Amino acid sequence: MSEHFDLVVVGAGPAGEKGAAQAAYFGKKVCLIERAPKPGGAAVNTGTIPSNTLRESALLLSGLRRKGLYGVEFHVQPDLSVADFMQRERQVIETRWRDIEENLARHHITTVQGTARFTSPQALEVTRHGLAPRSITGDIFLLAPGAHPWRPAHVPFDGRIVVDSTDIPTMPGIPRRLIIVGGGTIGCTYACIFASLGAQVTILSPRERLLAQFEYEVGDALREEFTRRLGISVHLGTDVTRIDAQADLAYVTIADGTTLVADCVLFAAGREGATHGLGLENAGVATNDRGFIVVDEKYRTSTTHIYAAGDVIGYPGRASTSMEQARVAMCHAFGLRYKQAVSSIIPFGVWTIPEVASVGLSEQEAHARGLLIETGKAGLQHNARGQILGETTGFVKLVFALDDKQLLGATIVGEGACELIHVASAVLAHGGSLDYFIQAVFSYPSLAEAYKYAAYDGLQRVQRRIELSGGLASEL
Question: Is the Cβ–Cβ distance between 180 and 350 less than 8 Å?
């Protein structure tokens, strides 16, 4: 005998939780299925929350934030394990578990632990060790099982010498030498953390810049900080041809034949959808070659009563967007007018050292679209708060339309960038221009004050262009 619901959700990560709550808020009978013993998905259990908490612990215990400011140096004991830094992480995760469970209970959502698999487009079978299979049917399904690190067959993962990001919380010790394959978000984040804990870190990336999805200047600034402040060795445009593990050491061979040796290799070169075993073929749900589910603009899959949201549909693969995708999907699924689209203004942040964040168009993207633009930039080394914090390479950069000065995008590198970016997000969302920053009053000393000086710099650049063109606006 099966149990029937208006909505059946697979996966209790950010997308699954918020999608379930959205439907339940409007009176739908909802069932949420999660394979793991606790909710939260990768964001809470193995990804965002653990890495952010580990970063803060590393910054605190290494004294990195204070180095060079007061003449006091801190050193981390070499025999510490990652687990020694994870007490705070455990407290945060357990608090997130309680918050999620309380939210689900408040919305009267039925929760089921077990592994779900479609037996038909309308039905799932949920299995759990020691229990009889449970049949659950639904009118609407939301798939939010997330994603996991890509593990190519030629990489000998063992969870100890050759690892991916999910292995990090259980690593037996801080490696003395660490090679990171990949210069994206995960690779750069963990490079900072382990370097601040005293590891000799090497980054190998086939791309020409770190965090290649950001402004060109971001990669340059980050590489300078990595090498100067953290002692990280960065090799860009470098292809890895072979990874081996022998006698408790890792050997990484690159395209020119050079072999590098380390105590550990972190492979962080992509992710894939966590759809294996879900029985999507029984429901007619299509995926791409990385296991990501294919959806339309309403987050419907190839089977129209089955929706998908979050990391399992691929880019951008952020908890913030995953939540919104699921809410929008459920509004479309049940004909709710509450929310019809995910905002086009999406801030991106990476908690590297220093932090990096952006929103809207980069200078390169604006040029590629053929827009007439100008930029304004303020270095945090000239900002009073930045000087207090010891900023040397951070900046706030604004991209705006040349004719009406409307803000088109912003990029920030430095302490607090992932918080500061929301000021630019709000201005963008309301169609604001540089006038907002010029007219606004910012606290002094504050990092946010750099917005004003970036705007002033932008206006000065426009004025110089007018002067060079002989005062003819049509020549700009």
Answer: no
In this structure, are residues 218 and 184 in contact, taking their beta carbons and an 8 Å threshold? no
Close Cβ partners of 289 (under 8 Å, ≥ 6 residues apart) = none
Inter-residue long-range contacts of 21-29, CB under 8 Å, 24+ positions, other chains counted: 21/103, 21/104, 21/107, 21/109, 22/326, 22/327, 22/330, 22/331, 22/338, 22/339, 23/140, 23/330, 23/333, 23/334, 24/107, 24/108, 24/109, 25/107, 26/334, 26/336, 26/338, 28/334, 29/5, 29/110
Note the CATH architecture for domain 3-149+272-333: 3-Layer(bba) Sandwich (3.50)
- Which of 420, 332, 434 minimizes the C-alpha distance to 373? 434
Average pLDDT for 234-257: 94
CATH class of 162-269: alpha beta
- Please report, as a single letter, which amino acid is at residue 397: K
Q: Are strands 373-379 and 395-401 parallel, antiparallel or unpaired?
A: antiparallel
Q: What are the extents of the domains in the chain?
A: 3-149+272-333, 162-269, 354-475
Question: What letters, b where the CB count within 10 A reaches 16 and e where it falls short, cover 368-381?
Answer: eeeeebbbbbbbbe
Q: Helix or strand or coil: residue 180?
A: strand
What is the pLDDT averaged over residues 98-124? 94
HSE toward the beta carbon, residue 403, CA cutoff 13 A: 4
* C-alpha separations of 345 from 6, 46, 49, 140, 421 in Å: 32, 27, 23, 29, 11
Quick one: CA torsion of 118, 123, 129, 131, rounded to 10 degrees?
Answer: -160
Which residue in this structure is represented by tokens 């999507």? 280
Q: What is the DSSP string of 96-149?
A: HHHHHHHHHHHTT-EEEESEEEEEETTEEEEE-TTS--EEEEEEEEEE---EEE
pLDDT in tens, 114-159: 999 999 999 999 999 888 899 999 999 999 999 999 999 999 999 8
Which of 42-51, 162-171, 219-228: highest mean pLDDT?
219-228
CB atoms within 10 A of CB 211: 25
Query: What residues contact residue 106 under an 8 Å CB cut-off, 6+ apart?
Result: none
For 207, the token pair is: 């791309």
Please determine whether the domains at 3-149+272-333 and 162-269 fall in the same fold group of CATH. Answer: yes
The dihedral formed by the CA atoms of 123, 128, 131 and 137, expressed in degrees to the nearest 10: -10
Give phi and psi for 32, each to the nearest 5: -115, 120
Q: Shortest CA distance to 386 belongs to which of 420, 357, 411?
A: 420
**Whether 22 contacts 107, CB under 8 Å:** no
- Residues 416, 446: contact at Cβ < 8 Å? no
Task: Give the homologous superfamily in CATH for domain 354-475.
Answer: FAD/NAD-linked reductase, C-terminal dimerisation domain (3.30.390.30)
